[in-house]
């Protein structure tokens, strides 16, 4: 009787192994069928950028600095006007 029990256990394990192997094979075949390929384009990618940059500079002088510049017109190397 003991021997029959061992044979049943081995048969059950063999059946489980066969099911697992079948599932792995099916999963492998399904994954191969859904492959994605990526190829580089024949022409290089060109990006055109039309950018207009406008910069405004705003400055403020306090009265002391303004008076210093007016009193010394050649301070920055130019002729005062």
Mean pLDDT across every amino acid position: 75
Number of strands: 0
Number of helices: 2
Structural classification? mainly alpha
Low-confidence stretches: none
The N- to C-terminal Cα distance equals 121 Å
Shape: rod-shaped
How much strand content do the residues show?
under 5%
Gyration radius from CA atoms, angstroms: 43 Å
Largest sheet: none
The H/E string reads: HH
State the helical fraction. 40-55%
Key terms:
81 residues, 51% helix, 0% strand, single chain, mainly alpha, rod-shaped
Topology:
Blueprint (H helix, E strand, L loop, with lengths): L1 H32 L29 H9 L10
Describe this structure in words.
The structure is a single chain. The chain has 81 residues and is mainly α. It has a domain at 1-34. It is 51% helix and 0% strand. The chain has helices spanning 2-33, 63-71. The longest helix is centred in the first third of the chain and has 32 residues, at 2-33.
């Amino acid at each position: 009787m003991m021997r029959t029990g061992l044979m049943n256990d081995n048969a059950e394990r063999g059946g489980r192994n066969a099911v697992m192997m079948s599932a792995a094979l099916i999963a492998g075949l399904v994954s191969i069928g859904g492959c994605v390929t990526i190829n580089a384009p024949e022409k290089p990618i060109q990006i055109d950028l039309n950018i207009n940059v406008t910069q405004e500079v705003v400055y403020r002088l306090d009265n002391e600095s303004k008076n210093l510049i007016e009193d010394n017109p050649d301070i920055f190397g130019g002729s005062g006007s």
